[in-house]
Amino acid sequence: MGTEIRRLNVLEGSIDPRPFHQDWQYRLMASDRKTVEFLVEQMAGGGTVSAKAMFGEFGIYCDGKMVALVCDDHLFLKPTIGGRAFAAGAEEAPPYPGAKPFLLIDAEKWDDREWLAEIVRITSQEVPAPKVRTKRKSG
User: Fold this and answer.
1) Are 84 and 95 in contact (CB under 8 A)?
2) Which helix (H) or strand (E) holds 74?
């Protein structure tokens, strides 16, 4: 019963005090394209950075490798040894239900272009290249 009451309060417009990633039934919005464009611009020094829309959210790619997700206007970086060391103390959280934890990059770091570019470069170097898909024969 307590969960149902909290859910009704969220739908009525009151704000749930918990961080967004602690209870996925309270997610209310998708990411804003302007946020993603800003992040891509800030990360550009790390390599060839681009974004791709994925189910209302965005994947961020560096040199053809997916290095991050933007979900609910929060930046989640794929966890790597170098990335964890560079972002010492960064919280880890799943970007969507059922996902493994990613590094949750605090919005205060978004304005530091050099820092973002460097962590994206480090992550891109450690993330494996995407697998090449083979076409299936029809018939």
Assistant:
1) no
2) strand 74-77
- Partnered with residue 91 across adjacent β-strands are 104
User: Would you give the distance in Å from CA 60 to the centre of its chain?
Assistant: 8
**107 in Cβ contact with 115 (< 8 Å):** no
Q: Give the residue among 65, 73, 102 at the shortest CA–CA distance from 87.
A: 102
The burial class, CB within 10 Å (0-12 / 13-18 / 19+), for 84 is middle
Those residues with Cβ within 8 angstroms of residue 27's Cβ, 6 or more apart along the chain or in another chain: 20, 72
Whole-model pTM over 0.70: yes
Question: What are the sequence ranges of the domains in the chain?
Answer: 29-126
* CA atoms within 13 A of residue 123's CA, in its CB half-sphere: 28
User: What is the fold of 29-126?
Assistant: Yope Regulator; Chain: A, (3.30.1460)
Query: Which tens digits make up the pLDDT trace of 36-92?
Result: 999 999 999 999 999 999 888 999 999 999 999 999 999 999 999 999 999 999 999
Q: What angle do CA 83, 74, 101 make, to 5 degrees?
A: 50
